[in-house]
Amino acid sequence: MSRCTTSVAEPLHALVLAGGRGSRMGGVDKGLQLLHGRPLVAHVIERLAPQADRLLISANRHADVYAALGHPVLADPPGLAFAGPLAGMLAGLQALPDDAWLLTAPCDCPGLPTNLAERLHAAAQAHGLAFAQATREHPTHALLHARLREPLAAYLQGGGRAVLRWMRSLPHGVARFDDEAAFANFNHLADLHG
Description:
Elements lengths: L11 E6 L16 E2 L2 E2 H9 L5 E5 L4 H5 L5 E2 L10 H10 L6 E6 L9 H9 L4 E5 L3 E9 L3 H9 L5 H6 L4 E4 L18
Parallel strand pairs: 1-4, 1-6, 4-5, 7-9
Antiparallel strand pairs: 2-3, 6-8, 7-8
């Protein structure tokens, strides 16, 4: 796969975060819920894949169903199953070469910006980390360098789970976007039929 929208020289891998419990959707696997006849995760892949050299999926259930979409599937690291988005991010970082970047996005955000990687990379270059912000902050729409795998592992092993708190504890950039609607996510089953 060849990315078409970034000027990032280092390898750039994208990770769709689909490893949650789907609590607000009644415990269903959120990424596999249908929107316009296709799983939510398929909409996100369509937006994210052209922005990266390789795409990965973070999932803790239905790995075979996710794998059928044609991309490698990563479970949360041992001892961190269902520990939140940061556990998925750590699994992604652990799968990267040392010189690579990891672009992340949640599986329930089908309208994410097609220039997400480009904008995040511009904001992350000096720090190795950046997240998106429109009207509010969107820390799961992020770009992380592989060198952050050890600090992230230490934070998780210490019981930390808050994505924004961890990111703010490190030097970071913020990529600002004008369109908050691009980051709209689907948290409830009713949202899919609204």
